[in-house]
Amino acid sequence: MIKKCLFPAAGYGTRFLPATKAMPKEVMPIVNKPLIQYGVEEALDAGMHNIAIVTGRGKRALEDHFDVSYELEHQINGTPKEAYLADIRRLMKECTFSYTRQKEMKGLGHAILTGETLIGNEPFGVILADDLCDGDGEGVMSQMARIYAKYRCSVVAIEEVPMDQIHKYGVIAGSEIEDGLYMISDMVEKPAAEDAPSNHAIIGRYILTPDIFDILRETAPGLNGEIQITDALLTQAQRNMVLAYRFKGRRFDCGSMEGFVEATNHYYQRLNGGD
């Protein structure tokens, strides 16, 4: 069983300015729950009780959310409103939370490497809270954990995206070894449509083996001068094996306004007995 899940959460959230000027994008609510809470619930459902969060300046609200609010809880103690805290209290009871700070924004690969001090020498999940996933009855991380248990190698989640959107993603090429499961032969970060090896785009769910840290240390900066996790994963695929999994469920790109609104509508309907 994989016990730890890493949440890179140091980004500025500039696409949501001015809302994110003083509020971390990860605590922006989808209906009545912050984005990152959905991710932590997904990790816990996959058996990952140790939550490691890479933060940055101005992100204290993340730590406060997963902590006791004595004044608030005193005010609503014994009232019907106390039921609203049931989900977050479950997470606080069943998970441990640890934090480290990314001092410079040098890409997702650098953020994951920054989390090494919290992860140590063991396999771990990675969830990007921006990518909110409704796992169609089973969380995406739970689906991926089963694949890891069988193959014992790094696994990335993928979905098919339109070619006019492919330049926004890391993209994989590979051979299908099971239905929806690919052995990766190539990975390209944010290619032009004509250069993309497929329309299988990597989304914000990973299970990584700990040798990724040494690979990240030796990975040169790539696109935009950042340390790209796709470059490190390609090295790992060439040395060993990395799998790409076309997950079951629906993903919302909550880093975009359109995806954020779609997710809000989806979960609001669910809250009110809809789809």
Characterise the protein shown here:
This protein has helices at 35-45, 60-65, 70-76, 86-94, 108-114, 116-119, 140-151, 212-218, 229-239, 257-271, and strands at 4-8, 29-30, 33-34, 50-55, 96-101, 124-127, 131-134, 154-160, 170-178, 181-189, 200-208, 242-246, 250-253. It has 275 residues and is an alpha/beta fold. The protein has one domain (4-271): Spore Coat Polysaccharide Biosynthesis Protein SpsA, Chain A, CATH 3.90.550.
Give the helix tally.
Answer: 10
CATH class: Alpha Beta
Biggest sheet, in brief?
9 strands, mixed
Poorly predicted residue ranges: none
H and E string: EEEHEHHHEHHEEHEEEEHHEEH
Structural class: alpha/beta
The amount of helix comes to: 25-40%
According to DSSP, the number of beta strands is: 13
Q: What is the molecular shape?
A: globular
* Strand arrangement in the largest pleated sheet: 5-4-1-6-11-8-12-10-9
Strand portion: 25-35%
CATH topology: Spore Coat Polysaccharide Biosynthesis Protein SpsA, Chain A
Name the CATH architecture.
Answer: Alpha-Beta Complex
By CATH, the superfamily comes out as Spore Coat Polysaccharide Biosynthesis Protein SpsA, Chain A
Overall pLDDT, averaged? Answer: 92
- The Cα radius of gyration reads 18 Å
Number of domains: 1
Taking the alpha carbons of the first and last residues, their distance comes to 32 Å
